[in-house]
Specification:
The chain is an alpha+beta fold. The chain has a single domain, classed as Beta-lactamase (3-Layer(aba) Sandwich), CATH 3.40.710. The strands form 2 sheets. Strands 1, 2, 3, 7, 8, 9, 10 and 11 form an 8-stranded antiparallel β-sheet that branches. Strands 4-6-5 form a 3-stranded antiparallel β-sheet.
């Protein structure tokens, strides 16, 4: 059963609650702690992007095209459409000899409001580069170009690229390939469904390399290092993934959001992975919950960065603070685990 993981206060009254499930696992899949249902099945969504970037390194694609650490980072991104994001994705496409029209991620407005305003005022057309998944798609196209695969059908489940990526997700999560649930993501490519504890295990393996062949472990280290080196490219200004990796950089953690309130964190110093799902799909409480979990685990972050999330306040149209979102974490169970 799902548990209440966050309460939304307006004044002193709890106006709303969010139910959710989260779990911490090690690389063997052993559950360290969980709240709610650790076996809750949902889609990995964009939290799977770092895993899907692994073959770009492992197969030699990154070296063949001379991809930088910044370009590897944006391949893992759900970015805000800021200038550095668009320019870095364009650089990937330049190196593989394609332009934005090859991207089949679709077009949407930039998530960053300042960027959106500038683009609209300039009268420039908004193209696929601004899609938050454009980096992932550019990386997918790079694999196709390197392997000589068709780039016109690369988003279809039957394409060898998508079969390859499904195999990587299967192996990281330690889920038989045929047991992965396949859906269609917002950007049009297959998305993979499995249990939260399997996602947490995948992130533990991602940040430790434990249980992976040497070449894959080295590729995972290269990808996660790129994310830590360029956190602004993984999400963007005032985005929780970017801010978490900056605020807790001394722990070398890796954080990645997925749509519908999925969130994953890799904790290499403990050898653990964390996977979270808010069951109503509303992501507004994620930062409060993740920070509360990290605090209970004894992590200390840069207050200058995380103070905008802790406390996570609610303001009205006059910018007055009228409430806050508070994580509801089972501290007693945490204390039992930490002893």
């Amino acid at each position: 059963m799902a548990s209440v993981v966050a309460k939304v206060y307006r004044g002193s009254l709890v106006e709303s609650v969010h139910y959710g499930d989260w779990v911490i696992c090690d690389a063997q899949g052993r559950i360290v702690f969980s709240q709610g249902d650790p076996h809750y099945v949902t889609f990995f969504r964009s939290a799977a992007k770092p895993i899907q970037a692994i073959p770009i390194v492992e197969l030699g694609v990154a070296d063949a095209y001379g991809f930088t650490t910044a370009e590897l980072a944006v391949m893992c991104a759900s970015h805000s459409g800021e200038a550095e994001h668009v320019q870095t994705v364009q650089s990937i496409l330049n190196k593989i000899g394609l332009d934005h029209t090859a991207l089949q991620c679709g077009i949407h407005l930039p998530k960053d409001k300042a960027v959106l305003q500038r683009v609209l005022q300039s009268g420039q057309p908004i193209n696929e580069l601004y899609n938050n998944c454009s980096g992932k798609h550019a990386g997918m196209l790079a694999i196709c170009m390197y392997q000589g695969w068709d780039i016109n059908t690369y988003t279809t489940p039957e394409h060898p690229l998508q079969q390859l990526l499904a195999q990587y997700v299967s192996e990281f999560c330690q889920v038989p390939r045929e047991q992965l649930i396949i859906g269609v993501d917002g950007c049009g490519v297959p998305v993979f469904g499995c249990a939260l504890d399997q996602m947490a295990r995948a992130y533990a393996r991602l940040v430790t390399g434990e249980g992976l062949p040497p070449e894959r472990a080295q590729a995972a280290e290269r990808v996660t290092t790129a994310m830590r080196m360029h956190p602004s490219l993984v999400a963007g200004s005032n985005q929780i993934c970017t801010d978490l990796m900056r605020a807790f950089s001394q722990y070398r953690l890796v954080a990645k959001a997925g749509a519908e309130a999925v969130y994953c964190v890799g904790l290499p110093d403990r050898g653990w992975g964390l996977a979270l799902k808010i069951e109503d799909g509303n992501s507004r409480a994620i930062s409060a919950i993740v920070l509360a979990i990290l605090k209970q685990l004894g992590y200390s972050g840069d207050n200058e960065i995380i103070r905008k999330y802790d406390p996570l306040v609610i303001t009205n149209h006059h910018q007055q603070v009228v409430g806050m979102i508070v994580a509801d974490i089972e501290q007693v169970a945490f204390e039992r685990v930490m002893r």
